[in-house]
Amino acid sequence: MKSDINVLRIPIPTPTLWPYTTTNSYIIGNKEETLIIDTGYNQPITRETLQTALKKHELPIPKKILLTHGHKDHSPGVKQLLDWQIPTFIHPLEEPEIRRNVQIDNLHYLSDHEEISIGDESLIVLHLPGHSPGHLSFYLPSKKILLAGDNLIEKGTSWIGTPDGNMKDYFITLEKIKSLSLTMVGPGHGDWIHNPYEHIEYVLNRRKQREEQILHILKDNEPLLLHEITNKIYDGHIHPSNKVVAEKTTEAHLIKLIDERKVIQNRNAYSIYS
């Protein structure tokens, strides 16, 4: 009889967004079989970290690699594991980004609500776009654990920005995550989230507050360019290295507000819809 399935969080050092210096990989399985979710950056320490974890817990080489999305701090580490000769599974909408970041063969597609067998249990694939168009999260019903990828991070909020991100989709994704039965969430970065519903509400409220802030800024100062709006929101509040993603997140909010007919864009300037 097979032993119970365990879920291990393996932080892999990566050049990712401040304040994080690691990207989470997850090993799911038992002493008979395992699979791995996300593989960090394409550098030797990726392989070293994963091999050390497998050896420490006396686990076999994974049978599959599942990627939440194609961003370069989550997917290119696959290249460090090519000699394992195991298939990599993605959502088809992530293939262009993955192909840009790493050339790999043996790619296979996953679809929403598909079930992946691991031991005597099933891991459910959830297509939850917003951070990227084909972003996947993985739900283990037996333990009520969601491995969220970058849909959630331990501290703060994920950035949602062009060309990959869609803020409208992200709001829908957060509501879907909230509807799951959860005990904890494994985020893309940072430690386990043990208060999932409180955390999701925090992220939802943060995004709603940001939209209200943008609308107030435009009411008081319109018209404004994207970088002017971003400066009014973030100056003095974020690390300089995050300025580009802050601007992209502001732009994603503006695109959503334009779609909702709350904001208009005239050339490069934004104003309140009237």
From TrEMBL:
Give the matching InterPro entries. Answer: Metallo-B-lactamas, RibonucZ/Hydroxyglut_hydro, Sec-metab_biosynth-thioest, WH-like_DNA-bd_sf
Q: A Pfam family in this protein?
A: Lactamase_B
Q: Which residues form the Metallo-beta-lactamase domain?
A: 22-189
The record's SUPFAM superfamilies line, in alphabetical order, gives:
Metallo-hydrolase/oxidoreductase (SSF56281)
**Protein origin, superkingdom:** Bacteria
Q: Which Gene3D superfamilies match?
A: Ribonuclease Z/Hydroxyacylglutathione hydrolase-like (3.60.15.10), Winged helix-like DNA-binding domain superfamily/Winged helix DNA-binding domain (1.10.10.10)
Name recorded for this polypeptide? MBL fold metallo-hydrolase
> From what organism does this protein derive?
Cytobacillus stercorigallinarum
